[in-house]
Amino acid sequence: MQRVLMVILALGLIGLSAQAADKQMAEAFAASAAKLAADGKNEKAKDMCYKALANDEDCPEALFELGKMFEKENNLTAAADFLVRAAREFGKAEAAKPAFASKRLEAETRAKKLNPYSARFSGAMADYAADLNMITKKSTDAFTLEEACDRVDSLKLKAILPPDKAPKFERPTVAAAKPEKKTPEDEVSRFVSKLKKPEPVNSIGPDVERALKAGGWDKISGTWKKKSEGVYEVTDGKLETAKLNGAIQVIIQKGGTGSVHAFVRNSQEEYSGTYSSWGSGYGYVVEGSSAKMFTPSGGYSDRKFYSYMERDDPLPEANPKNMITVTVEEGKLEYFINGLKKKSANYQIEKKGPFMIKIDGTMTIETPQAKGQ
Prior knowledge:
- By secondary structure, this protein is an alpha+beta fold.
- Helix content is 42%, strand content 28%.
- It folds into 2 domains: 2-116, Tetratricopeptide repeat domain (Serine Threonine Protein Phosphatase 5, Tetratricopeptide repeat); 203-372, Sandwich (Jelly Rolls).
- The chain is built from 10 helices and 14 strands.
- Helix 1 runs parallel beside helix 3.
- The radius of gyration is 25 Å and the shape is globular.
């Protein structure tokens, strides 16, 4: 038992080490971005910044560099957002890293120039937080604290304001019932059960399976309800086929409670942060009335390309359904929405599959197809 507990402790330390390694990697990417930006290589610098944020979404140096680059491009809204965020993160870390103080001041100064009302806005929020602090000192009952905390959360005051001006109170806690005594064996069992992933629910009728395999798909999972010929209501479903070149196509009905991923060369790890998203393949993620386009990015020091969310294409509000098509031939990618080409790209991307259509939540799709080899 002692040996098992030591393993659990080691796993926890590994998790902490991984977080520290991610932050170090982010700092390295941000430093490379600063050098590239100084040389006028803004696009490469942006890629490095987004890689930094993929490792640490609060990396102040990467946020700062992006803010300065967008400022040069006269994209003032984006610049102000990044600079304000950078100033906050520099402020949080300047006690441990005094050099961040001057960078915080520069970020704040740049942000104020871009938005003359930002100082007044910050001052108003600081005054409001001070009033809440005064109220909760006088009235310490749970009802008052709950309402004050709801207001803090709705305005995101703890994220907007520096620590010295942020709210000083916390949401009241309800005394927990005295826990029953647990043995070390119980704790280990609880820990192991958390590591186990729930078994996926599969419900695929024989006629549905035949139709999907005829459409070019080898692996099928999730819950598929046939609504009419070629039309399926899908819950947490996935289609895969071991193809490298060819095309995927799917028609997605408006509505639903989830999203549809349609990717070729689906072999990477997915990541979504505050300012950047990296996909598992190249193609689209459709959710609501938008189609997020994932295209190759990178190809610099490590010569590898990564799937990066380039932009968000709006889908026509009047359309009851929309057709997504993605083609790949060696390194050439083409993206289509409702038959209209939205982008063509040609890079030396890795030849790793499979083709994939994945449904998170519940969506209704029509005639999902995969062609090629």
